[in-house]
């Protein structure tokens, strides 16, 4: 169940035409952050802060969420949402820019969890970066693994569906990951780094 702050963030996202994680997917994010005792988390795609609040609520009290988005306006809203949800500004590091430009500047092996909620065209590059950024035992979560219900339809050949299939296949076949697709919300591809 979402509280009024999360509901406000969700309605602001809808007003802006931004998709956001479902409450069910949000609870999975919180669970995985808590299970890993996450202190350092990267979120690719800040939006209005819906998923960020879920992540922060699962993280350690001294944890810091690094969240990346190209839209300054979205980040301004998210900053307010994080504060209204009770998180000190020191708990978030909000970075404006394209994820593919920002990720190379982040430290190797320094993160406990990475949540990718970005354009599907960036999935492959983001998952490659996650392998470098996560500590062993760290968790990668990619939102949208169901490709809007098209993932299991062999006739679906659009770019987004093909990209998601390739990402899932690459992680499943890699020796570096222990993966699972969690059928919550838009589908969460979760993988633990070996």
TrEMBL record:
InterPro entries: Cation-dep_OMT (IPR050362), SAM-dependent_MTases_sf (IPR029063), SAM_O-MeTrfase (IPR002935). This is O-methyltransferase. One of its GO terms (biological process) is methylation. Gene3D superfamilies: Vaccinia Virus protein VP39 (3.40.50.150). PROSITE patterns: SAM_OMT_I. It comes from Actinoplanes aureus. PANTHER family: O-METHYLTRANSFERASE RV1220C-RELATED, O-METHYLTRANSFERASE-RELATED. It comes from the Bacteria. It holds the Pfam family Methyltransf_3. GO terms for molecular function: O-methyltransferase activity; S-adenosylmethionine-dependent methyltransferase activity. The keyword Transferase applies. Keywords: Methyltransferase, S-adenosyl-L-methionine, Transferase.
